[in-house]
Design a protein that fits this description.
binds magnesium ion; 10 helices; about 325 residues; eight-stranded mixed β-sheet; 8 strands; about 50% helix; about 15% strand; alpha/beta
Length: about 325
């Protein structure tokens, strides 16, 4: 097998012991059928189950094709993919999930789109199989994202079965950000992206690594990482509220002169005050999200730590 394969498949793994064997069987089956040279890079993102040993065993089965990056802890799905990106040897790079929610049989479709000259192939999930609350959150999220970040043209940013050219992958690696959202980052560098539909299955085994809170954090990362929209909204809102308050002060002042001192309406004043305090707190929170990112970047701690890599030297 050549040390410069045509395809690199990058797969983050977090507690997927129940899926890995089936993934290996279906993925290698689909890739062998495609007839292109390939490598598969798994990143074990701090799994607490047997995923680590299983990946080692998969590497021993096909040492020239299967490479395993072992993290020193849990650094998140996107960092796991980034670690794979740092080491890819192929020309076309494909990311996918380990839980078989993305069908490996659709990789051929992505490769065809890349060969047609695109540098990024986005995907949307056809007949998406997820819990109702995930579907609802996702639908709203995609709407808000399209509104806040009109430049990110994609129907469904949650589907990770995607393809990128090696140039785009190298650019993504060079950014070195501590938190990121790979599909959005890729699109910011793409010159000729396209989108295709791929299948989606419900999780056959194991469970999602994302809790509801995890998903909220994940979306903040996406928004603060790629848009200043929330800050700009607060500047505008702040201006409107100041104008309104000024008009209100003038109104109260005139009443003080014309009508004289009044004590009624204290509760109304409190309601208005609470509302304004709420807005201020929200604004502080939004600002804090950005400051948190700046803090992470200036600390310059490693964004992930690799314990060891199982691979054949090229
Ligand atoms: N994953 C990871 N690190 C994490 C969370 C998830 O490497 O901290 C991997 C996981 O093993 C899977 C992919 O990222 O291959 C998507 O995760 P999951 O299926 O839990 O997310 P969902 O499909 O529910 O969005
Ligand atoms: Mg999944």
């Amino acid at each position: 097998m050549s040390s410069h394969p045509y395809l690199s498949i990058v797969i983050p793994v977090h507690n997927e012991e129940e899926s890995l064997e089936e993934l290996y069987r279906r993925l290698t089956g689909a890739l062998d059928k495609l007839g292109k040279t390939y490598e598969i890079i798994f990143t074990n993102d701090g799994s607490k189950d047997r995923s680590g040993e299983m990946l080692k065993e998969l590497h021993e089965r096909r040492p020239s094709q299967i490479r395993v990056i072992e993290f020193n802890g849990n650094f998140g799905q996107h960092m796991a993919i980034m670690a794979g990106f740092e080491r890819v040897r192929g020309q076309i790079v494909i990311t996918m999930d380990a839980d078989l929610q993305n069908p490996p049989e659709d990789i051929g479709k992505l490769v065809a789109a890349m060969e047609a000259g695109h540098d990024v192939v986005n995907t949307h999930r056809e007949g998406r199989q997820d819990t109702w609350w995930r579907l609802t959150v996702s639908r709203w999220h995609n709407k808000v994202r399209a509104w806040m970040m009109p430049k990110l043209v994609m129907e469904d940013e949650g589907c990770m079965l995607r393809a990128y050219s090696r140039e785009i992958v190298d650019l993504m690696v060079s950014t070195g950000e501590a938190t990121t959202f790979i599909p959005a980052l890729a699109l910011s560098y793409a010159t000729n992206p396209t989108e295709v539909g791929v299948g989606h299955a419900s999780r056959a085994a194991g469970e999602s690594s994302y809790s509801f809170y995890g998903l909220i954090r994940y979306n903040f990362d996406l928004i603060t990482g790629f848009s200043l929209f929330p800050l700009q909204v607060f500047t505008l809102l702040g201006m409107l509220v100041s104008l309104g308050s000024f008009a209100f002060v003038v109104f109260l002042f005139l009443r003080r002169i014309i009508v004289g001192p009044e004590v009624e309406g204290v509760f109304t004043l409190f309601a208005i005050l609470f509302f304004l305090i709420g807005i201020v707190l929200l604004g502080l929170g939004v600002t804090g999200e950005y400051i948190g990112r700046i803090y992470q970047e200036v600390r310059k701690r490693p964004r992930f730590i690799v314990r060891h890599v199982l691979e054949e030297k090229n």
